[in-house]
Amino acid sequence: MIAEIQKKIKDVSGFSTNDSKELEKFRIEYLGKKGHISTYFAQFKKVQDSEKKEYGLAINELKKVTLKKLEDLKKSINPLDKFNLVNEDLTRPASAIELGSRHPISIIRDKIIDIFYKIGFNISEGPEMEDDWHNFTALNLPEHHPARDMQDTFFINKNPDLLLRTHTSSVQIRHMENNEPPIRTISPGRVYRNEDVSARSHCFFHQIEGLYIDKNVSFADLKQTLLFFTKELFGNSKIRLRPSYFPFTEPSAEVDIYWGLNSETDYKITKGTGWLEIMGCGMVDPNVLENCKIDPNEYSGFAFGMGIERIAMLLYQIEDIRILYENDVRFINQFKGSV
Ligand code: DAH
After folding, report:
1. Highest mean pLDDT: which of 45-59, 71-85, 172-186?
2. What is the pLDDT of residues 249-292, one digit of tens each?
3. Residue 65's CB: how many other CB atoms inside 10 A?
4. What share of the chain is helix, strand, coil (3-state, %, to 5)?
């Protein structure tokens, strides 16, 4: 019997074909349920004890040689098998590559930057951890000034004083300290306020600050700049400026755009007036210029500041600010293709 197995080993080694059907026949003949190999295994118990070892080694060898032969012939019949391809159709379309989407805050921030860039504004940034001077004092908000209560601050350290900036107006100061007029700059960035999180407000959000300092800058320049901006961003040419108060500007104003009253939502978001507030602005207070070593007798300027979330929520009709920070792909994916 061992001699018979040895012969089968020789047969297998000498076997060759380039026909896959024939190869399958060979497989069944040797490795099938009733094939040679399982038959030899079944006969193992009938073999005399003295021969068992040699017999076992022989059928294992036969099995090994057969499996190897089978694999080699498979590869030579279908050369692609050696790449272990699951699907052999090389002409089939590739699976689509998932593209990511930009976050609505980034989309709106970049749109705003592009608009001001076109009219000569550069971009400046400052730290999110600020000192009292840049966030408050230099902006005409001395200690104990009641206007400090307008902004609930996260304080980090008392001495040296360190806090999370409550607005991007701090970058105005840094920019004026480090640059000579004429200045035209916008400063996008994240700001923090110690406020309860709700559908309308969050403890951090984003702002864009604008600053223009030169000789003979007037309120009319401010108005025209903002009109250009609102036309570009909202396609809307109707704005109004309402008198307001900010410690760092004099006079100060709040800017409303005419949103219209075309739908029920328009009524809701404009409280029935058709007007929407989008930013604060004003002529830079002479004290602020002096704090930055700019002579207010020679130079004047305007500043403005707006919340990016607010504008994104208006343009994309997002009702709850919190969804902007949840990273839910079902939300983010809706901005695919927007740049
Ligand atoms: N910093 C103000 C805020 O956070 C926004 C602002 C108002 C900025 C008027 C300005 C400005 O530059 O002139 O509410």
Report:
1. 172-186
2. 999 999 999 999 999 988 888 899 999 999 999 999 999 999 99
3. 18
4. 45, 20, 35
Residue with CA closest to ligand 1 atom 6: 305
Return the amino acid letter for 238: K
Sheet containing 275-284: order of strands: 122-123, 183-192, 204-214, 300-307, 275-284, 249-258, 239-246
104 Cβ inside 6 Å of ligand 1:
no
Q: Could you identify the atom of ligand 1 that is nearest to the CA of residue 302?
A: 13
Q: What's the whole-model pTM score? A: 0.73
Q: Ligand 1 centroid to 107 CA: how many Å?
A: 22
Domains defined along the chain, listed by start: 2-83 (no CATH), 104-335 (3.30.930.10)
Tokens found for residue 295: 């002579």
Look up tokens 């159709």; give the residue.
89
Q: Count the neighbouring beta carbons within 10 Å of the beta carbon of residue 313.
A: 21
